[in-house]
Amino acid sequence: xxxxxxxxxxxxxxxxxxxxxxxxxxxxxxxxxxxxxxxxxxxxxxxxxxxxxxxxxxxxxxxxxxxxxxxxxxxxxxxxxxxxxxxxxxxxxxxxxxxxxxxxxxxxxxxxxxxxxxxxxxxxxxxxxxxxxxxxxxxxxxxxxxxxxxxxxxxxxxxxxxxxxxxxxxxxxxxxxxxxxxxxxxxxxxxxxxxxxxxxxxxxxxxxxxxxxxxxxxxxxxxxxxxxxxxxxxxxxxxxxxxxxxxxxxxxxxxxxxxxxxxxxxxxxxxxxxxxxxxxxxxxxxxxxxxxxxxxxxxxxxxxxxxxxxxxxxxxxxxxxxxxxxxxxxxxxxxxxxxxxxxxxxxxxxxxxxxxxxxxxxxxxxxxxxxxxxxxxxxxxxxxxxxxxxxxxxxxxx
Length: 398
Description:
By secondary structure, the protein is an alpha+beta fold. The chain has 3 domains: about 1-75, CATH 2.40.50.100; about 95-160, E3-binding domain (Dihydrolipoamide Transferase, Irregular), CATH 4.10.320.10; about 175-395, Chloramphenicol Acetyltransferase, CATH 3.30.559. It is about 30% helix and about 25% strand. The chain has helices spanning about 95-100, 110-115, 135-145, 175-190, 205-220, 225-240, 285-300, 375-390, 390-395, and strands at about 1-5, 15-20, 30, 35-40, 45-50, 55, 65, 70-75, 150-155, 160, 195-200, 250, 255, 260-265, 265-270, 270-275, 275, 315-320, 335-340, 345-350, 355-370. Strands 11, 14, 17, 18, 19, 20 and 21 form a 7-stranded mixed beta sheet that branches. It has a 4-stranded antiparallel beta sheet with strand order 1-8-6-3, with no helix packed on it. A 4-stranded antiparallel beta sheet has the order 5-4-2-7, with no helix packed on it. β9 (about 150-155) and β10 form a beta hairpin. The protein is globular.
């Protein structure tokens, strides 16, 4: 008998949540076959079977357990004959009440709604495959039936109708990752003197540069040339000129870093994660693009390792990909600042005494006023603006 034990998944992680069991109780599993998914406050991971045998489950989905907890066991045994492939039982023949007048059956959920509301399935049009009546079809039929009986109140000549319809409320437990995100964001708001300063960037030069060289860049480096590499490079130069923006408070001391470990906020189906590009100040635009692409794919697939999300000194978040015009991003503690990018919009600008249409992006720098003064924050953002509006500065470091 081999116990299934929750392993240590990181220095600061003391408990995990069992997100889902991928195998059933009593089912045969192979060695190293994924049997359940666990979530920590930083990431999710699959737990493999330590041995081949019969699975016994002793913890349920949604349980939060400590590191080292036994959540099940594997009893040695042979794979049962025929267990490699499960045969699907044939569906029961349709009853006259379920299929009368329709080319398909009503689903169990649909049939339950129809029976509860004394509705004849033969009078309901099915939109499912083969004319099958879906739950939505049944709800629409129910609404149509109720609409004929909706109450009407008269106030003089004014009639007020009370429409009927589906009013469902869904309740889901927060995942460990979502709970931790919530806790950290609230803590950042409550424990820092957070302030946000804004500026705007004319993206004409960068857009022109991309349009001119994007094909040759991709052909040589096998990666597309995006905006994030320019912003990351510009921030690295500005961070080295204004080191407190790249620092943090630890107790009564201010720590600054001579390197730039830049976190890139990535939205995933399970929540926001911030993988880190190490020593970004030493990377080329192509290297930065490849790092961002690799980390984003890992984040999307839930394959990020804990060490890939720890130790950042500064963060960049891009709400513009979702259409955000302006926002005040929240600091990713223990860092002291975060840069928010937004969408690019053509706007009229006064240039050399003439009004011209230019692609403009608003930038937001949220910073901890305890360590960064207003002069430093404004100067940092102005420096980033200069570097982006004249990309030659990025190459010459001037």
